[in-house]
Design goal:
There is one protein chain. The protein has helices at 40-45, 56-68, 83-92, 165-173, 191-197, 202-208, 228-238; strands spanning 2-7, 20-23, 27-29, 48-50, 77-81, 113-117, 124-127, 130-137, 143-149, 154-157, 179-183, 217-221, 244-246, 252-254. The chain is of the alpha/beta class. Helix 6 (202-208) packs parallel to helix 7. It is globular. It starts with a strand and ends with a strand. The structure holds zinc ion (ZN) (2 copies). One zinc ion is lined by residues 19, 55, 57-58, 160, 222.
Length: 256
């Protein structure tokens, strides 16, 4: 299983794209502005999208991608998300006001997007020995992380999240955890903002990680533009002893 990082920034700017991960060229996990770097042919190859939550930096690319694909895809793209996330998307984005409802276009029988509600901790088979399991994380809106498993390894993407024992309880129950993609959006001096916006800061993530019984390699995402170098400096102290790297657009992360 190969994950290409289309975007992993907490905002926009030159060279920065917001969260979107492309799994084996056919599955998107989140659809932020990183989707805009895919060619039309690459967009048309996407069969499924898994959304962590409804925030714009994770879903705006889905709106534009759907609009590109009339006549280019043989069947609807399945968009998996929690009931709450789907409800927000349908009421507030794909509602014919902000954007057309692509779940009935070009027609209801064979639309561009098909909503697929998924439930926390119910595993979905992706074929070829791969599976994905959504799990609840703490954020300002209902949010999922996703655990990806193959025959030979396991990778977890937390999405946007904050300190919460439920996260570590879920991760500790996994039989193995080789790679953990986790967010740090703000530097330590913005811990109050992190608390309000439910995003990690380096010191907080470092202390929370003591609850994790696995020892995965860490990949850090979602730094707010302008905060990257301060976060990197603070992580040297806060994540001492961990094998980690700061994820960048264009990186690939693989398992088994
Ligand atoms: Zn968010
Ligand atoms: Zn975000």
């Amino acid at each position: 299983m190969r994950i290409k990082v289309l975007g992993c920034s907490g905002g926009i700017g030159p060279g920065l794209r917001t969260t979107s991960l492309l799994l084996d060229d056919e599955i998107l996990i989140d659809a932020g502005t990183g989707v805009g770097d895919l060619s039309l042919a690459q967009q048309a190859r996407v069969r499924q999208v898994f959304l962590t939550h409804c925030h714009l930096d994770h879903v705006c690319g889905l709106a534009f991608m759907a609009d590109n694909l009339f006549d280019l895809i043989p069947e609807p793209i399945r968009v998996h998300a929690s009931r709450e996330t789907l409800q927000t998307l349908r009421e507030h984005l794909f509602n014919w006001h902000l954007w057309p409802d692509f779940s009935v276009l070009p027609d209801e029988q064979n639309p561009l997007l098909r909503w697929q509600e998924c439930a926390a901790e119910e595993t979905i088979d992706l074929g070829e020995g791969r599976s994905i399991t959504p799990f609840r994380v703490l954020h300002t809106v209902p949010a999922f992380g996703y655990a990806l498993q193959t025959r030979n390894g396991a990778l977890v993407f937390t999405g946007d999240c904050y300190a919460d024992d439920g996260l570590w309880v879920f991760l500790n129950r996994l039989p193995r955890l080789d790679r953990l993609i986790v967010e740090i959006a703000f530097p330590d001096e913005q811990a109050a903002l992190g608390h309000a916006a439910k995003h990690f800061t380096p010191e907080l993530l470092g202390s929370e990680l003591r609850k994790l019984e696995h020892r995965p390699k860490l990949f850090l995402t979602h730094a707010k533009p302008g905060c990257e170098s301060r976060i990197e400096r603070q992580c040297k102290q806060a994540l001492r002893g961990w094998d980690y790297e700061h994820l960048k657009r264009g990186d690939t992360v693989g398992i088994g």
